[in-house]
Amino acid sequence: PNARLHFLVPAPAARPRSLPLRLQLGSARQSGASRGRARAPAAKLRPLGLAAGLPLPPGRPRPASPAGWQSLLSFTILFLAWLAGFSSRLFAVIRFESIIHEFDPWFNYRSTHHLASHGFYEFLNWFDERAWYPLGRIVGGTVYPGLMVTAGLIHWILNMLNITVHIRDVCVFLAPIFSGLTSISTFLLTRELWNQGAGLLAACFIAIVPGYISRSVAGSFDNEGIAIFALQFTYYLWVKSVKTGSVSWTICCCLSYFYMVSAWGGYVFIINLIPLHVFVLLLMQRYSKRVYIAYSTFYIVGLILSMQIPFVGFQPIRTSEHMAAAGVFALIQAYAFLQYLRDRLTKQEFQTLFFLGVSLAAGAVFLSVIYLTYTGEWHQGWKYAKIHIPIIASVSEHQPTTWVSFFFDLHILVCTFPAGLWFCIKNINDERVFVALYAISAVYFAGVMVRLMLTLTPVVCMLSAIAFSNVFEHYLGDDLKRENPPVEDSLGPNIKSIVTMLMLMLLMMFAVHCTWVTSNAYSSPSIVLASYNHDGTRNILDDFREAYYWLRQNTDEHARVMSWWDYGYQIAGMANRTTLVDNNTWNNSHIALVGKAMSSNETAAYKIMRSLDVDYVLIIFGGVIGYSGDDINKFLWMVRIAEGEHPKDIRESDYFTPQGEFRVDKAGSPTLLNCLMYKMSYYRFGEMQLDFRTPPGFDRTRNAEIGNKDIKFKHLEEAFTSEHWLVRIYKVKQLQNRETLDHKPRVTNILSKQKYLSKKVGSQGNYPTKVGSGLSGRW
Amino acid sequence: MAAPRSEAAAAGPSPRGGSASRPRRGRWRWGLAGASCALLLPPLLLLLCAPPSVAQKKKENLLAEKVEQLMDWSVRRSVIRMNGDKFRRFVKAPPRNYSVVVMFTALQPQRQCSVCRQANEEYQVLANSWRYSSVFSNKLFFSVVDYDEGADVFQQLNMNSAPTFMHFPPKGKPKRADTFDLQRIGFAAEQLAKWIADRTDVHIRVFRPPNYSGTIALALLISLVGGLLYLRRNNLEFIYNKTGWAMASLCVVFAMTSGQMWNHIRGPPYAHKNPQNGQVSYIHGSSQAQFVAESHIILLLNAAITMGMVLLNEAATSKGDVGKRRIICLVGLGLVVFFFSFLLSIFRSKYHGYPYSFLIK
């Protein structure tokens, strides 16, 4: 009820958002109609402000009309936040087309397609023989199926209603639609934590904040797109169940948690944060029956539900990252039992002493588990990965975060959310303990790994919204119309309006920044490239799809394509051909074998390729257009990964010049200049002069004239090269029909006899076997 | 300086009486060797008439002696310190059936070689792993030549940089790959072990002595806090001080959002000094990296903006003199607006092509 009394707040909350909303919509090239709609809440502010100004004695039931206005306004703002969030995620669709982006989404799309066309049970049992040839992959048991099931369900329902939508469109627009749901659940959670105004601000922030948009633009069909919604909704239901102590809220929380487990591996964050919350509540002596009911129910039901996901299986009772939850469960049972005993028994002092000892011991156990889990695995795990597994270090997402990334993804929110944290801790209660813990743990993980910025973003939005809402609450609105006008204490209307105006300007800059970042950094599908000419016209480079489509149309259905693992999902999804390795990097030795083939010379590579039944080799080459993400630039990782498994055959130092440089020109190491990857990339490139100012064979990506222009293949032949040479496909030749002999054949006198014979027979030449037929023909 | 001398003195066949069992075993073995020599003497005399075989025998004897000597040293100390003479006798001179890995270094304090010290630590870890492993044998020895004890060795090998790791194979001269590529691979014990496995087929599993310093520090901290709590047990109000807790949380948040974790993992320089004109730049030009000084600046800016927000709230809620509150309010606003525009301008200078700015270009 406390939160409801702040009904003045939605009005200030609405005003800052109405500006960004309009900008968002305008930038997404929406029609004038939606602009008109965006202006609507601003117009409605006035009546609310008046209604809010009515003096209300506390304790009396509120008149119906402000509450009605209030909910209508909230509803409108949330709807507009959804709309703005949805529209600003459409840059890629408007610029290119409705297409699945990047790498992992292609696998998700392919699985969803399988689910939609073969049914749910077939999907769970799906053994994909087209991946990881010759091993195959059990897809049903190695994915989080939530994403596919969600998209498949929406597709099924729409088709039931006779709305015929292609499954691809469902997949493309799933993440933008879920961003609206994320806004709503963030609103609900923030409302529980602070008040409604902060909730609306938070909903608007998260709708457009780049840290979340980066994973949820249209076409980015990935787990995170729906998982952030599940995360926020689970937290909302958890806070609700701690507040009420009702089993039904907790069961809802468990169901939401189940959805989260089915959607993303990040559920581990929830199953550690909630126990941490309970533990800290116990430490702060904020234990209550509500907490006991909520946590006991959540732990048991959540555990059983999470174990229903095939990919998770028995992990929740085996692995160390789930142990903290079990420890806290035991602790809270012991604590509750002691509370019960203390109520019954009389020896007060003995009791307290006993309970202190037990809780300290249990706390120590819990802390050690936490310590081992976090410092041992998250932080050390990164260091371990850096040294030992090049495949993990080679993924750019697994890097620590600079301040620039924080600012880029969160802008003003990153500087203001500590203020929100400050207010929460100063006015602490059960659920604000939760948000403080959420903020501190998420900010730590985001600092360690740049991709975990995603889990930080929601809490930053909430706390920032609390900070801004606090300011607007005090500075926006008229003192005279307040409940008990504090005239003599007032700061004066001038200062108030200056503060309000500057704050609104900052928020406006935030909205502009978000749009700019979304448009420039996060809206590239990466399988269709665009380049801009000097006059601003755009060239679309569609080489990837061109090449994949060529494979689909011109090769045998069961042809096996070797490529570096980055392109595995795309080949499977777009070309529908068998791949050796893909982005699910579960088998390091298989990847190392492919890396070895790429970095050996042609003869050695041919042996490996024969043993792997390779028919085609696909590589990405950016030297013609200056595309820096090509295989030559990734080549050292291939060498490193190959060296990890085959240290006798591949040595990284062989690929450097004596000075320790990696060069593709004449000064480059001979091993590099003769390895398969180099030869395939630069085959016939030496004949090509791109520019009159540069010599033939000038690589634009590395700005060097290549060192080996005379490349000939013995066991491979060029099969396809795309328009801008971005993708090159080579066919692996079959073994030659007849082995050529090393030595000269032994000279015998048979030949002369044949000659003699043939002369005798006539003009049949020297083919003794045909003599008979020739004769018969003549007869 | 004293250590190698004493070792050289103790290297003779009569070891000093030690408390540990190791020297005794050595003595026993030496005794045995002496006895076997005595037993072998008559046949040796008999065999004098067959010169080639005697030469062979002599060579074998020499070899056995060398191996015994080396084993004795390495049992006592996992890395054998060598001077010029010892190096020539045990590492360079021909009858060998063992590999020697030599670290050429300069550990004397006056040389001021900090890399040498780090490399030496790693080398000791590796040598100890070998010394106490189950496959420890006389096939591989670790030794070290310090520049101040064997400068002639450095000259002989034409070596002018330290530290350098070299492997001397049992037969023949060291090849190019027998010199460890320190520049590229670094000197981690694991990398050294990999290189040795590559050169000698001896696989050493590096066993690092567990680092208890973190645990001890944590235990100390906990006991300190516990002691403090115990001493002030009559007045525990300060635990419930929300301001303290809020401060602590904000510290964590500021440290993370200003990229201190990045600094911790990547170890960038504090600032960059241009060697040409001596100008010091505190801000890294690229958005992919940062200096330590830069992250501290950002930390302060973030803290100032947060403080501005808090002050704005304070000004509106506190009960007090209106004029004072107005000043607080304006200061808070100034902090937020000014420092945010400053932050934005730094961001803009790093992120090329960013179009927006506010107050400050």
From TrEMBL, chain A:
Membrane topology listed for this record: Multi-pass membrane protein
* Superkingdom as given in the UniProt entry: Eukaryota
Q: Per the UniProt entry, what are the Gene Ontology biological process annotations, in alphabetical order?
A: post-translational protein modification; protein N-linked glycosylation via asparagine
Sorted keywords for this record are: Endoplasmic reticulum, Glycoprotein, Glycosyltransferase, Magnesium, Manganese, Membrane, Metal-binding, Transferase, Transmembrane, Transmembrane helix
Q: Which enzyme class, named as a word?
A: transferase
Cited PANTHER family: DOLICHYL-DIPHOSPHOOLIGOSACCHARIDE--PROTEIN GLYCOSYLTRANSFERASE SUBUNIT, DOLICHYL-DIPHOSPHOOLIGOSACCHARIDE--PROTEIN GLYCOSYLTRANSFERASE SUBUNIT STT3B
Q: Using the record's annotation, list all stretches that form the STT3/PglB/AglB core domain.
A: 561-617
> Which terms does the record give in the GO molecular function aspect?
dolichyl-diphosphooligosaccharide-protein glycotransferase activity; metal ion binding
Compartments where found? Endoplasmic reticulum membrane
Q: Which GO terms describe its cellular component?
A: oligosaccharyltransferase complex
Q: Which residues cross the membrane?
A: 72-94, 138-158, 170-190, 196-214, 264-284, 291-311, 323-341, 353-374, 403-425, 432-450, 497-518
Q: In which family does this protein belong, per the annotation?
A: Belongs to the STT3 family.
Please give the InterPro entries that the UniProt record associates with this protein.
Oligo_trans_STT3 (IPR003674), STT3-PglB_core (IPR048999), STT3_N (IPR048307)
Q: Which organism does this sequence originate in?
A: Vombatus ursinus
Q: Can you state the subunit structure given in the record?
A: Component of the oligosaccharyltransferase (OST) complex. There are 2 OST complexes, OST-A and OST-B, which contain STT3A or STT3B as catalytic subunit, respectively. OST-A and OST-B contain common core subunits RPN1, RPN2, OST48, OST4, DAD1 and TMEM258, and OST-B contains either MAGT1 or TUSC3 as specific accessory subunit.
- The Oligosaccharyl transferase STT3 N-terminal domain extends over 73-463
Pathway(s) annotated for this protein in UniProt: Protein modification; protein glycosylation
Q: Which reaction does it catalyse?
A: a di-trans,poly-cis-dolichyl diphosphooligosaccharide + L-asparaginyl-[protein] = N(4)-(oligosaccharide-(1->4)-N-acetyl-beta-D-glucosaminyl-(1->4)-N-acetyl-beta-D-glucosaminyl)-L-asparaginyl-[protein] + a di-trans,poly-cis-dolichyl diphosphate + H(+)
Q: Which cofactor does it need?
A: Mg(2+); Mn(2+)
The protein depicted here goes by the name Dolichyl-diphosphooligosaccharide--protein glycosyltransferase subunit STT3B
What EC number(s) has UniProt assigned to this enzyme?
Answer: 2.4.99.18
From TrEMBL, chain B:
Extent of Low complexity compositional bias: 1-21
User: In which pathway is this protein known to take part?
Assistant: Protein modification; protein glycosylation
Q: Which GO terms describe its molecular function?
A: magnesium ion transmembrane transporter activity
Q: What PANTHER family would the database entry show?
A: DOLICHYL-DIPHOSPHOOLIGOSACCHARIDE--PROTEIN GLYCOSYLTRANSFERASE-RELATED, TUMOR SUPPRESSOR CANDIDATE 3
Family (UniProt): Belongs to the OST3/OST6 family.
- What is the source species? Vombatus ursinus (Common wombat)
TM helices/strands, residue ranges? 212-231, 243-262, 297-315, 327-347
According to the record's subunit comment, the protein's assembly and interactions are: Accessory component of the STT3B-containing form of the oligosaccharyltransferase (OST) complex. OST exists in two different complex forms which contain common core subunits RPN1, RPN2, OST48, OST4, DAD1 and TMEM258, either STT3A or STT3B as catalytic subunits, and form-specific accessory subunits. OST can form stable complexes with the Sec61 complex or with both the Sec61 and TRAP complexes. The association of TUSC3 or MAGT1 with the STT3B-containing complex seems to be mutually exclusvice.
Protein name from the UniProt record:
Tumor suppressor candidate 3
CDD domains according to UniProt = TRX_family
Q: What does UniProt give as GO cellular component?
A: oligosaccharyltransferase complex
Which portions of the sequence form the region Disordered?
1-25
Question: Its topology with respect to the membrane?
Answer: Multi-pass membrane protein
Q: Which gene encodes it?
A: TUSC3
Q: Does the UniProt entry include the keyword Endoplasmic reticulum?
A: yes
BP GO annotations: cognition; protein N-linked glycosylation via asparagine
